[in-house]
Specification:
The chain has five helices and five strands, in the order H-E-H-H-H-H-E-E-E-E. By secondary structure, the protein is α+β, with helices and mostly antiparallel strands. It has a single domain, classed as Nuclear Transport Factor 2, Chain: A. Strands 1, 2, 3, 4 and 5 form a five-stranded antiparallel β-sheet that branches. A hairpin with a 5-residue loop joins strand 3 and strand 4. Helix 1 runs antiparallel to helix 5. The longest helix is centred in the N-terminal third of the chain and has 23 residues. It is elongated, with a radius of gyration of 20 Å.
């Protein structure tokens, strides 16, 4: 068989393997889209007080009133009065960029404290597989376009809270082989990344950090 044909088949197999692994560990990447101007920052809602037992807008702005998620978020606030849903989502947005780029660049050293053991092991396996194939990733984060609270739960017995957030981010992203040739992605076009991540923490604990405990599409 022609040596050049063999090389092409090997690279194709590597690309398919990486795409499947990345979909399992992270989320999905849609087709490339042209860069857009950054949206103007939204003005923060002014502070408010819940009057006469009315709904907590910090909760109902994100999930339906009296839903299971709303009840769970209320319990989180009762266990830790300083907890705010809007503040949490702002922190989660920053954590998303930091963790995603740590994974893409293959450097988990700065984000280990924000990953559960299972997620850390899954990320590490994918990074090692890339390195074994001589593949490198170059990525530049463009921004988070959407952050949406998807679900929440609270364990009354342990005080453990879980909050699931859907993100849509945008980044430039290329995979290069050992020869420096691009086998996936584009240096100039922005690609949309969709992820659904679950963060967990014991409410009222001294450690304020939430950990990423599950990832998906």
């Amino acid at each position: 068989m022609n040596p050049n044909l063999i090389s092409i088949l090997v690279l194709a197999g590597i690309a398919v393997f990486l795409i499947l692994r990345l979909k399992n560990v992270l989320g999905t990447r849609d087709g490339f889209e042209p860069p857009r101007e950054a949206a103007a920052p939204k003005r923060k809602n002014p502070g408010f007080e819940v009057i006469d037992g009315g709904p907590d807008r910090d909760i109902t702005d994100h999930v339906p009133e009296n839903s299971d998620a709303a009840i769970a978020l209320s319990k989180m606030k009762a266990a830790e009065p300083s907890f705010g849903v809007t503040d949490f989502l702002g922190g989660a947005k920053g954590a998303y960029e930091m963790i995603l780029m740590g994974f893409e660049t293959g450097d988990l050293s700065q984000i280990e404290s924000f990953l559960s053991q299972d997620v850390h092991e899954a990320f590490s396996q994918v990074i090692k597989a890339r390195e074994a194939q001589g593949l490198t990733i170059e990525a530049e984060f463009s921004g988070v376009r959407e952050t949406h609270l998807h679900d929440a739960s609270f364990d009354d017995a342990t005080g453990e809270a879980e909050v699931t957030v859907k993100f849509i981010g945008e980044l430039t992203y290329v995979v290069r082989d050992a020869n420096g040739e691009i086998v996936e992605g584009s240096e100039s076009q922005v690609k949309r990344q969709k992820d659904t991540w679950t963060f967990a923490r014991i409410m009222g604990a001294d450690d304020p950090n939430w950990q990423l405990v599950a990832t998906g599409e």
